[in-house]
Amino acid sequence: MTSAAALAAWAKQPFALVHGEDGDLRRASVEAWKKVHVDPEWADWSLTLCGDGCPWAEVQNAMQEAPPMGVAARTVIVPAADNLFAKPKELPASIRAWMEKPPADLRLLLVAWGTLSAAPGKALGAKPWTDWAKAGRILKTGVLEGDELLAFLDAEAKRLRLDLGSRPRDLLVQRLGGHPGLLRRALEVLDLLCEDRRATEVQVDQVTFRLAEQKAFAWSSAWQKGDAASALGALRQALEDGDEPLMLLGQARREVDRVLKYAEADAKGLRGAELTGAMGLSPKQAFLLEGYRGVASKLRGEGLRAMLAKVNQCERDLKGEALSRSETPLLDLTIGLARAWRA
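User: That's the sequence. What structure does it adopt?
Assistant: Structure tokens below.
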């Protein structure tokens, strides 16, 4: 969860990175950063927007341009930078020098649509990105899980003065997952419906049904039921409505990762709170285990590895075609997921 104070502190960083699937917060973060570092009167001359999926070479060329007369700094924004983190070890030496010691006359914002991993050997798991994290230059806007998700819902309900009981809250999470923007909009609709300020399961069902019909979670709901036809229809509707392909992929990756974590934890003999904790779930989300258990039992070792490879391949294809926004990788993944989850 990102507080206003944390967002404001991050926005002051001259070299910064924002990553994650929450499009609402990501857009707000970019605007907050631009407000601090971009003078609207000089933006046409001092601000450079790199292309989607551009290589480091294009970023370097943009950063090497001299600022115009009368402007103190050149500002560069990379609006779709996921591909730059695909191979962390291939960060050019010239770029690394800037990252480790940003020049006073440069401003740089990197924007990644997906959540970047900080695990060892991954995108943010090594220098200079670990130093960026310590300095407060990295802002995460990804999906929420576990206690962080429940805390977010409690805080939003309190803001709206809405009584959100445990069962309505669990249904909300089950239907919409951990996407902050979608959850926030669902609560705002409940705020209008609940005249007595107490949300019921029936009202949550009505709200999430309408949202699911229009938004991306209809897609994940369909393939988790093994309904490939409905999933493909929901995918097309979501893309036509402007949902970002990488956000959709983030939902799929979260579910596949949870199945993998379940299989690993089950092999270790973990049960109860240890099992939910290993999967990044809170004890109140234990009702989700049965679904993951079924998929893990069906696919087993080789099948699980094949499903993870399919998700990774889809990510590579999407990032390689950021300009064309091809639907083909997600179509193939949708069919594969529906087959895997089919009872």
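The chain has a mean pLDDT of 84.
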